[in-house]
Q: What sequence folds into this?
DNA sequence: CATGAATGAGTATTCATTCAT
DNA sequence: TATGAATGAATACTCATTCAT
């Protein structure tokens, strides 16, 4: 009984996904230059040559990886929160909850944040997600719930902290995360 | 007529320092794997071979660089602030002032922080400076000036933000830094 | 479909042996410092990188090469001759026959002798094979078949001549070897 | 009182001779490829640059060194012995005496022999001194004092042994040399 | 499709040579 | 002259990529 066309396709898809999944973590941890195909393939558990059946080159793989992390990060979540008919403070708390939960439960999420920010720092990608948060911050400042200050810088600060914990997650698996409240507090006025 | 012993010593010292100074920035920006000796030496303005007159290998140079950044970071400042007969809140404000000023004016400082934290994340160095800040935080929590929460995590958060801005400094020279108050606010209760 | 484990093992073994075989000759001819990996690999007919799939470094390869030549030279032959129930003179003639034949027919033998002696001169190896011959010489001197003189020095002289012809073999392929009798004569009294 | 022209010349001559003397030994021991200018100059006790005040290049120095060893080896002695109105056996004994004495007392002599033979093996020089000995051997064979056999090969054998002891001298300073008789015996029939 | 041995361009390191002092 | 720091071409070694099986 020969494998059906679909089964083949399926296997290909599986292997491809395996490579991507493992590579996201590997690249996030070691960076582009620090990642050797020989080590990566060992880590994935396949032969070096196999990677080249699915990706043209190391750069191609990295680009793909980055696309993934980009999507992950660019997540509709942030936009969906922004559009809800609730206070800015609520939006920020929901966002923080969502982020902390994702960082805790999903290694890929951490890796994506890490990769994305690495490229961000190198100025190689746009900064769209800063923008959305900026708007929420300005809203909150009008409400009086968000601390005073340049909205852009506050946005950067917030994302910076998220990045930090993402990176920590990659290196120390059992890392004790900050609580959602601590993250929110970066933006929100202390409630009295 | 041979060069005088002292003059030679002097020249060696100068070249060695030049290499270190430029390398701190270069390694901080590109990481170990991303740094090519050929590019580095070009950046320093010397021949490739010259580096090997002063350092055994790329790894040796990196280790030395790290020692330097370690000293820089382990700076007595933090400890000296800790010992002053002032409130914890004051200590935190002084520390923040000092850090923001240093980040702004001294590229080496940013690079050192960046390198140090990179290795910290990889768990390859001790975390002594967390400790000192932890103590100040606990003091502040007793005073009621520092926000509630696990002192260790707050300390990590604070240093994390410093790291973030250090890294930003390395990539974008004209980066608009947060203000000292924004940094302090990570730990201090909002004054009402 | 992956290559079978055995076939891979086989290929590795073959390549490894090819490298060793050619390297013995190359190092024996050019010495360690005079051997360039680029030239050696060209001589072997493989890429430079391939050598590093089998050996850690040039030094590692050289050490391995030397191990081989050591085994070749430490050959059981000498010991087996020594134990035969025949006169010392006979032993010496058999040894000489064996050596001259080996030098003539087996380039590896010449190379091994050359390498071994090079290191011997540098005092980097033991001199076990001198010892066995020394015993035979002393036997022969009692029999009256071997010339008078310090047994150790005679042994050295004998091996020195063997070395000489080994080296000559490496440089001039069609070299006219001395006859076995000429070699034996270094130790044996002229028969009248 | 300025140095006189002659004194200057003298100093130059002295330094030049020092370099040559030390280099002969160094090259003889390490070979051309194995000799590093940095090590050599350290061994001589001068700066690297100084060598280049006296010699154009490493190759130039080696060539000069070789000239010296050539002269040493090509020594008139051999020819002068050949021309004496004495038996071939006597000539061989005188030659052996002379060689053993020189090897024992003059490190430069050993080095010269070593260097000369190294190049000889590589076929890079003529073999004039073989010729002279060959003639003596043929004389001796007519006299009945020299063993039978191809004169050229016997000559090579004789010189080979001399080379061997020269090399040994270079590596082990207190080496126990063979006696002049042992050397002569390679060519001479045992006297009964 | 998968493998891993082989390749060779790229990178690290050495060493003969130069040159400012 | 003599020095030794600096140079860069030559050499050792690595690693992304290819290819025969």
A:
């Amino acid at each position: 009984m020969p494998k059906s066309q679909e089964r083949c396709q399926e296997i290909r898809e599986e292997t491809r996904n395996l490579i991507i999944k493992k590579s996201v973590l590997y690249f996030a941890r070691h960076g582009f230059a620090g990642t050797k195909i020989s080590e990566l393939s060992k880590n994935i558990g396949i032969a070096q040559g196999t990677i080249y059946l699915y990706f043209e080159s190391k750069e191609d793989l990295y680009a793909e990886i980055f696309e993934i992390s980009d999507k992950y990060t660019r997540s509709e979540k942030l936009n969906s929160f922004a559009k809800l008919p609730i206070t800015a403070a609520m939006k920020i708390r929901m966002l923080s909850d969502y982020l902390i939960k994702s960082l805790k439960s999903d290694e890929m999420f951490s890796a994506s944040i890490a990769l994305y920010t690495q490229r961000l720092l190198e100025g190689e990608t746009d900064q769209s997600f800063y923008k959305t948060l900026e708007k929420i911050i300005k809203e909150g400042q009008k409400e009086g719930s968000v601390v005073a200050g340049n909205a852009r810088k506050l946005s950067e600060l917030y994302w910076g902290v998220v990045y930090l914990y993402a990176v920590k997650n990659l290196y120390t698996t059992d890392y004790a995360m900050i609580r959602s409240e601590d993250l929110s507090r970066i933006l929100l006025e202390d409630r009295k």
